[in-house]
């Protein structure tokens, strides 16, 4: 008799309404870019130039609104709201959290542009009439501007909206959720699918182009260091295959393993490299220039923010090709980076989230760009006789050529290469996690083979575009899509503000005016309770003698009024609650649970204070279905407990009756 083991069939979690249209669009655009790279790029360049020249003010205003809005939230009363329930805690340490958002957000770009961008601003014809010192100051100022608060405000807004609606409203980790207050249940239909399709395509294009340019820089570095003989396509295939394989392994390990470990390692190596260059380079000059540059940035912050260069015709072309291009690039990357930041930010308060996302990466970027960019300018002027500024058209090799002017240049080149490789991997693995999340509507049961699929697709299309010269066309396409998404992000601002107002009112709403305070009727019994401390057994006795009879009487009276009530009692867990089920709105829950409290040693030792055998005591504490903070009810009698439940039920009915609260009291929470 033959026996066969049942085979487990892989269950893909792809959402067809999002994944299939996205793949058709992604593959179609990439094939066109491979077959007709010059023609496609020419057409897209015309569209991009029209947008940048005629609609650049849209980018300027949108980015300005994002910055002002986030700063307002950080200092407002809404800043204390948590990205999750009121008692939720962060899942990752602060260091790991910052490391991961930094690695996903700008890692590989910092390595590519830290020398190239300041040198290009320093050498550009737009500022050629300025004195050499003014050009050096402008180079640092505009680099700070492009990599500072404005860039992180774009990422931060999308990340905040996603984290808030995902962990506070318990909606899917999806861009469609950010428009819930405006679209409500329509986010579950075609409108939501369109938004997710856009996010998936934008994420794929952004990662593909960045990884393509990253491969070229890695290849250039390996050639400069004599590890590879040339920068041929064959070597780029090998680089992509090795690094994407590592990225797939990291992504399938999950955020808490592969992504976190690599991000933590890279931040440590980055800091070591930064200190090497700082102390091996013109140290005093770098510290002084950073100090001046920071003050210069603060002094010119509003001028930089609103400057459209409309009165400076000579710098207009530079403005389009740098500032506007950067705003478009950060916006086009924000779905990917925002989704990843949201994924790792559960439990943070809004104030903590904004402060960390805006200030810490910005300050590090400033230090990094000052050390590398100002060192390159100093060497170019004092040592290299213009040799570095002559290489601005070859940014792939510029970083490694710059390192040749420092002591231990070989060691530094190896460190730089290692950092670029790890940033390459962390961008790819976090991108795979995000794309899988979008395509499966944030399913927690996605098979690992889906990560492998995205890794193979990324590697294949990036190499095809790299070989055919189609990366520039794809990059231009990505920049064009930033314009409609900038408008969508303005809707995110409106949506988030609307939700926060309702959220704050909901949790700050006091008890009903019909609340009757304690009377002095049972003051002797209460005094005895005040000067004694409860054990687990006494809390259980309180539940048996007071809470359960109170809930039972309430249940009988509710039934007489046509309202079905359920009582759930778990004596071993010291937990009991009364629940009224609803189909349309959230269930009403009033519960009491045993809560442990640690008291000070002074209270244990003081003879004039209540007797205690240890510093651990227990008390009965209320809890509610909407995560509001409960309170001690150990002094309540049965009738006072009944009264307290009715007060909260009265509050519940008043909130439900308000039309503006209907989206916050959705019945979706009942199934979670």
From TrEMBL:
Mode of membrane association: Multi-pass membrane protein
GO cellular component, one term: plasma membrane
Keyword ATP-binding: no
UniProt xrefs under InterPro entries: BCCT_CS (IPR018093), BCCT_transptr (IPR000060)
Location in the cell: Cell membrane
Superkingdom, natural source: Bacteria
Record Pfam families: BCCT
GO MF entries: transmembrane transporter activity
Record's keyword annotation contains Phosphoprotein: no
This protein's UniProt keywords: Cell membrane, Membrane, Transmembrane, Transmembrane helix, Transport
Membrane spanning residue stretches: 20-38, 58-75, 95-115, 144-167, 194-213, 233-255, 267-287, 324-342, 354-379, 411-430, 451-471, 477-501
Homology family: Belongs to the BCCT transporter (TC 2.A.15) family.
Protein name (record): Transporter
Organism for this UniProt entry: Epilithonimonas lactis
